[in-house]
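Kindly draft a polypeptide, keeping tokens residue-aligned:

***
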Amino acid sequence: MAQFSGLMKYFLLLVLVFWPAIASAETCHGTNACTLGERSYHIKLPDDWDGQSALPVLLHFHGWGRQGDLIVNHQRISGHTRRRGVLLIAPNGENRTWDFWREDSRDTVFAAAVIEHVAERFPIDRAQIYVSGYSYGSAMAWRYACDNGDGVAALLAISGTLSQDENCAQAPQEIRHVHGMADTVMYFPVGPGGDVAHPVRLWRDTLGCGMADHTGPWQAVEWLTLDRRTWDCDGGRVTLDIHPGGHFIPHGWIGWQLDQLMGRVPQYP
């Protein structure tokens, strides 16, 4: 009887320790949106979180016409974060789109507030906040980094940019961008004289980059080869991956970048 009583006390202690995280996850997690004022967002916890450790964060902006419920179930996004101990946050754009056209975007303010709202519920690692997006969401991720990049460890942008003539008040120390040469939705922005490095000129100018190191082809999956250029800069590092395909999220790309940024051996998935 005494042994049973001891086990019950231990069980109750575990419930008290983990209940806040468990309860909040049940009420607001996955496709069940979290509300913040008149707006909302989605989250996806990693598979192996212990309920206490500080979580790296991937803030991902969805493409045009989508919402965050798609992102938290997307195998090329949440399929990688959940295996790497990363908390995925997917804000919902108003009218399923983003306000990235000009500085001081209302969506930058909203997304920053989302991070703080999540931080009230879960311990987040402020040194590992990564911002990502696809298509219009990629342009919004650029805008977020341009307006609020000092608090961002890295920008992971996929098939969408801002004008390269923008002047950014802030910038992450690490920029990673991937784009398809045959993209007919958010066209690959070739520069003067056929300059294929033009898609990241804004960040190269902002961070004070020198000559590119053309590191060449690499693959996360055998059916897609990407061509990589990197710049070591006064204010950080810029990476550009180019592939021959169109408008899509390359298999394994997000996971590969997260592995490298977190000091792990890159793997798929």
Observations:
- The helical segments are 2-27, 68-71, 78-81, 106-119, 136-148, 201-207, 253-261.
- The first helix runs from residue 2 to 27.
- The two ends are 48 Å apart (CA to CA).
